[in-house]
Amino acid sequence: MTRLDQQFTFLAEAEKLKSVTRATPIHDASRPENSGEHSWSLALYALTLAEQAPEGVSIDRVIRMLLLHDLVEIDVGDVPIHSKGGTAHGAEDILKAEAAAAERIFGLLPGDQGAQMLALWQEFEANETPDAIFAKSLDRVQPVLLNHQSGGGSWIDYDVSFTQLEERIGTKIARGAPAVWDWVRDRVEGWFAARS
After folding, report:
1. Average pLDDT, the chain
2. pLDDT of 10-43, one tens digit each?
3. pLDDT value at 84 more than 70
4. In angstroms, how far is CA 157 from the centroid of its own chain?
5. Where are the chain's structural domains?
6. pLDDT at 82
7. What would the DSSP string read from start to end of 118-154?
């Protein structure tokens, strides 16, 4: 295979991300979001909210991470953060399956390019560098806003309380984008209070 053959093979595989259904509905609650839409949306979030990034964060790298971060869902599917029992988000077997998927998918590319993308994906997953922390914060905030816009979405499906939202997601958003979490919390807390 030529370099171009490998790149187009990877791109054809990446198209499958559009077929992965997520737990979160789109803004009008008419259907679930797909993982391709989610990745595009997050890249736009990073571009738009770049001024919220801590000093030293490279928005170009953040956008690249966000475009790549969910490609593993082609093999593993979406694992909702609020799911209970069975396949829990962050469970060891899920993490292993995602790592294997990353090796397979990025392995379709020419060696140098695949290694670079795999390293970005691993950096995002480790969530230790300033770029990854900010990227992970955006990855957590977008579904919160979709659930809020759609009238509760997966919060209703998974019987999520505001306390659970703040513990599971709010702390992760605040770690990389504290002002963003303050803004979001001010808007969503009232939705939960009205349901009590």
Report:
1. 94
2. 999 999 999 999 999 999 999 999 999 999 999 9
3. no
4. 19
5. 3-195
6. 77
7. HHHHHHHHHT-SHHHHHHHHHHHHHHHHHHHHTTSHH
Place of tokens 């995002």: 124
Give the separation between CA 167 and CA 175, rounded to whole angstroms. Answer: 12
**Size (the chain), residues:** 196
Helix, strand or coil, per DSSP, at residue 183:
helix
Report, at the CATH architecture level, how domain 3-195 is classified. Answer: Orthogonal Bundle (1.10)
DSSP bridge pairs for 177? none
Instruction: Write out the DSSP string of 75-116.
Output: HH----TT--SSS-TT-HHHHHHHHHHHHHHHTTS-HHHHHH
The neighbour count for residue 161, using CB atoms within 10 Å, is 12
Cα distance between residue 138 and residue 163, in whole Å: 20
3-state secondary structure of 70: coil
Q: What percent of the chain has pLDDT over 90?
A: 91
